[in-house]
């Protein structure tokens, strides 16, 4: 499969097939597809966009690029919260321990700095001695003992998203709503959560500057909700 042909098609406003998206993402995760070709694809998507089917397939390919976590020894619902990002966003650090006090488990695979915003993990690592690079066992132990756990994405947990996340940051292609949604959900689904609270930041300090310009509700909010429901139905169909 010629990646250059896929890039040219997307530059011209064409669609990518499910097979082509699978190849692109899985081979990118394995470092077969180089950064410079994926950067060109990201720029084409930034200007031409992707449809709902393509967005869903990007999500599916990201999830299948690595392992999925589960916590069968921890009872009750596992709930997470994620923000689309913005300057001064520190709500996760406040909300997670507060909600954990109600008895709900909060497994939180958090992000690092993206574009002009600081990441939750970067804020935590400013505390001397704080370790966010936890193994699955360490993460589960913290979650069981404290009710909430913050951890970094590992090399085996959604590696396609990890590489794409970093590349979007340095190529000014962060503000692609379907890929924002797919990036968020790939981590949240892979970490084994039962429910997700979305915090969509809109304004000059966020990636989504205005509801009118970016269509926040039908894009990021709508995509996240739609993709989450699709995944929920798929999991229960095969249960």
Structural class: mainly alpha
What is the N-to-C order of secondary-structure elements (H for helix, E for strand)? Answer: HHHHEHEHHEHHEHH
Q: Give the overall form.
A: globular
Radius of gyration: 18 Å
Give an account of the 3D structure.
By secondary structure, this protein is mainly α. The protein has a single domain, classed as Nucleoside phosphorylase/phosphoribosyltransferase catalytic domain (Pyrimidine Nucleoside Phosphorylase, Chain A, domain 2, 3-Layer(aba) Sandwich). It has eleven helices and four strands, in the order H-H-H-H-E-H-E-H-H-E-H-H-E-H-H. The strands form two sheets. It has a two-stranded parallel ribbon with strand order 1-4. A two-stranded parallel ribbon has the order 2-3. Helix 1 runs parallel beside helix 3, helix 2 packs across helix 8 and helix 9 runs parallel beside helix 11. It is globular, with a radius of gyration of 18 Å. About 3% of the residues have low confidence.
Question: What layout of secondary structure does this protein have?
Answer:
Blueprint: H1 3-11, H2 18-29, H3 35-48, H4 52-64, E1 79-83, H5 91-100, E2 106-109, H6 120-125, H7 136-146, E3 148-151, H8 159-170, H9 177-190, E4 195-199, H10 211-214, H11 217-237
Parallel strand pairs: 1-4, 2-3
Helix pairs in contact: 1-3, 2-4, 2-8, 4-9, 9-11
Offer a few descriptive terms.
239 residues; 8% strand; mainly alpha; two-stranded parallel ribbon; 4 strands; Pyrimidine Nucleoside Phosphorylase, Chain A, domain 2; globular
In short:
This protein is mainly α. It has a single domain (69-239), classed as Pyrimidine Nucleoside Phosphorylase, Chain A, domain 2.
């Amino acid at each position: 499969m010629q990646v250059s042909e896929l890039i040219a098609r997307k530059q011209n406003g064409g669609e990518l097939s499910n097979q082509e998206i699978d190849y692109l993402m899985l081979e990118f995760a394995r470092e077969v597809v180089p950064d410079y070709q994926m950067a060109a694809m990201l720029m084409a998507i930034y200007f031409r966009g992707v449809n709902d089917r393509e967005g869903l397939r990007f999500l599916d390919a990201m999830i299948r690029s690595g392992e999925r976590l589960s916590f069968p020894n921890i009872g009750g619902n596992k709930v997470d919260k994620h923000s689309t990002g913005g300057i001064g966003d520190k709500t996760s650090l406040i909300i997670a321990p507060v909600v954990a006090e109600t008895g709900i488990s909060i497994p939180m695979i958090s992000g690092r700095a993206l574009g002009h915003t600081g990441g939750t993990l970067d804020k935590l690592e400013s505390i001397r001695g704080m370790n966010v690079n936890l193994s699955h066992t360490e993460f589960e132990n913290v979650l069981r003992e404290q009710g909430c756990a913050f951890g970094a994405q590992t090399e085996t947990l959604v590696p396609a998203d990890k590489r794409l996340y970093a590349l979007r940051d340095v190529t000014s292609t962060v503000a692609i709503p379907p890929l924002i949604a797919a990036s968020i959900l790939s981590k949240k689904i892979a970490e084994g959560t039962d429910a997700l609270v979305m915090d969509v930041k809109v304004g000059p300090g966020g990636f989504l500057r205005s509801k009118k310009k970016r269509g926040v509700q039908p894009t990021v909010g709508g995509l996240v909700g739609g993709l989450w429901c699709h995944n929920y139905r798929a999991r229960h169909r095969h249960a």
